[in-house]
Amino acid sequence: RRPRQRGGRAAWLQRALNVYKDTIWVDPQPESAWDYCESIRFTRELIGERMFPLTLAGLDHGMRLLSKRR
After folding, report:
1. Are 23 and 50 in contact (CB under 8 A)?
2. Cα gap 70→66, rounded to integer Å
3. CA–CA gap between residue 37 and residue 10 (Å, rounded)
4. Cβ atoms of 13 and 46 closer than 8 Å
5. Are the beta carbons of 31 and 5 closer than 8 angstroms?
6. 27: number of Cβ within 10 Å
7. Model's pTM, two decimal places?
8. For the chain, first and last CA: distance in Å?
9. CA 33/CA 11 separation, integer angstroms
10. What does the alpha-carbon distance between residue 28 and residue 23 come to, in Å, rounded to a whole number?
């Protein structure tokens, strides 16, 4: 069993977002289920508008967002 990191999931994800500023999150669950799953809601709170469904359209939108940041 791995030791728990200080600050838990939120701190870990926030540290990653601070290091990798141009980040998107691609979620395999249907977008209609996002409000009903605690871990997805949690991730969405941290990642904001950079979360996309794992669909062709979602990948396209995510890649467009990343290409605008360059």
Report:
1. yes
2. 7
3. 16
4. yes
5. no
6. 19
7. 0.78
8. 40
9. 24
10. 16
The token duo for 12 is 């870990």
Percentage helix, strand, coil for the chain under 3-state DSSP, each rounded to 5: 65, 10, 30
Q: Per residue in 22-47, pLDDT tens?
A: 999 999 999 999 999 998 998 999 99
Q: Which residue has the tokens 């990343």?
A: 66
- Provide the token pair at 21: 């500023």
DSSP-assigned beta bridge partners for residue 25: 51
Amino acid symbol at 60: D
4 phi and psi, to 5 degrees? -75, 140
**CA–CA gap between residue 36 and residue 67 (Å, rounded):** 31
Alpha-carbon distance 4 to 31, whole Å? 30
